[in-house]
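Severity: low
Component: inverse-folding endpoint
Summary: output formatting inconsistent between runs
Steps to reproduce: submit the following structure tokens with default settings.
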């Protein structure tokens, strides 16, 4: 017999080295076709909802109106300098005239260099003088003051809505197609 506590030593059997045990039988053509058809049908079923989700997700990510609520402002509150980030100024005077220096907006009309020629993007900035007026309007998200400017050199016009808070007023407009997400924001200077 063995010494105390020792018994016959157990050893595991070696791995089978026969490669045939690890090989799987090849897939038949009908099995391959079945898997291909299943993937195709799954793709056709999932593709439309995926496309709709991408379109809606893109709209949700496109910038819209600036933060704050729609504002109703008196004409006196609109008079003054409205500056855009990166330059550009719109100065609204109490007599109903304005001066614009490289101001952004969604311009339309028949002026020189104004409007949306076929196949082109809207003009991103405009310099000139003209007249402005304001009126209150009922929009989707509430009552708001709308400012319209008209350039005197050919009839180019733009429209801005008041938004923000009493302490941080802005005039804003979407430029071109709303799905493009381009906006113009002018902040009131004290």
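Observed output (run 2 of 3):
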């Amino acid at each position: 017999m063995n010494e105390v506590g020792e018994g016959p030593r157990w050893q595991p059997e070696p791995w089978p080295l026969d490669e045939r045990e690890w090989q799987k039988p090849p897939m038949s053509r009908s099995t391959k076709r079945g898997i291909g058809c299943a993937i195709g049908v799954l793709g056709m079923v999932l593709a439309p909802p995926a496309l709709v989700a991408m379109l809606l997700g893109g709209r949700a990510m496109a910038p819209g109106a600036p933060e704050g609520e729609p504002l109703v402002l008196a004409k006196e509150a609109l008079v003054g300098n409205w500056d855009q980030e990166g330059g550009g100024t719109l100065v609204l005077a109490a007599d109903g005239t304005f001066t614009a220096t490289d101001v952004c907006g969604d311009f339309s009309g028949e002026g020189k260099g104004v409007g949306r020629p076929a196949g082109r993007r809207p003009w991103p900035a405009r310099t000139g003088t003209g007249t402005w007026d304001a009126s209150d309007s009922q929009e989707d998200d509430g009552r708001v003051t709308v400012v319209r400017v008209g350039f005197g050199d050919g009839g180019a016009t733009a429209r801005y809505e008041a938004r923000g808070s009493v302490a941080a007023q802005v005039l804003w407009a979407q430029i071109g197609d709303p799905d493009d997400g381009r906006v113009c924001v002018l902040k009131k200077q004290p």
